[in-house]
Every structure is written in structure tokens, then in C-alpha cells.
Inverse folding.
């Protein structure tokens, strides 16, 4: 099991954490929402909970709760810009479908 980062994602997270001035890493997860069923969540993490799984890649701690881990296993987190839009992109091999707007997915 692993969750990894591309270099652009790692740079962006390093910059966010530096500007924020605190935090142990980022928490990755999923929540129930949208037309396909689930959406990805990226949040700053100030602590690691006992039940969390922690992956470290490119000097960044990626913290995942047990409920989300089954959906995120094998995922690569990327960061990119397309026109005026920029953001994190989850390259998840477990995805079976994504909604038309790109905001939610199903497994």
C-alpha cells in the first residue's frame, strides 16, 4: 500500500506549509458527495491520530484515516494548472467512473 506525490504536488504542499507556519503534513481523504458518490479531500494536518496511516514521500507526510485508505491505496497526488484553474489532482487506479464536472468519482 502506498500513496505518492509528484514533484509539483510536493512543492505546492511545502509552500503551503511554510506559509502556514505549522502542521505535520496533509490529510487526504474521501467524503460522500456529488453525482458519482465520493469526492476527494485535502486538508492541513496538525496532528496524527492513533488510527491514521502515514505515508511519507518527498519530505511530506500524507495522513490517511482508515475509512479513506481503502479508496486511496495506490493513488498519486499531482498538482497542475490548466488555463485559469489550478489544483490537486488524484491519479487513483481504483476509480471506475468520474462525474462529468470532475468533482466526484466512484469505485
Amino acid at each position: 500500500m502506498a500513496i505518492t506525490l509528484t514533484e509539483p504536488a510536493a512543492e505546492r504542499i511545502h509552500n503551503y506549509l511554510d506559509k502556514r507556519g505549522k502542521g505535520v503534513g496533509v490529510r487526504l481523504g474521501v467524503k460522500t458527495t456529488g453525482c458519482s458518490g465520493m469526492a476527494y479531500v485535502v486538508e492541513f494536518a496538525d496532528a496524527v491520530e492513533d488510527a491514521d496511516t502515514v505515508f511519507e514521500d518527498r519530505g511530506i507526510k500524507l495522513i490517511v484515516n482508515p475509512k479513506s485508505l481503502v479508496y486511496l491505496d495506490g493513488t498519486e497526488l499531482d498538482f497542475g494548472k490548466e488555463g485559469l484553474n489550478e489544483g490537486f489532482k488524484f491519479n487513483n487506479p481504483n476509480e471506475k467512473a468520474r462525474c462529468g464536472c470532475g468533482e466526484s468519482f466512484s469505485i
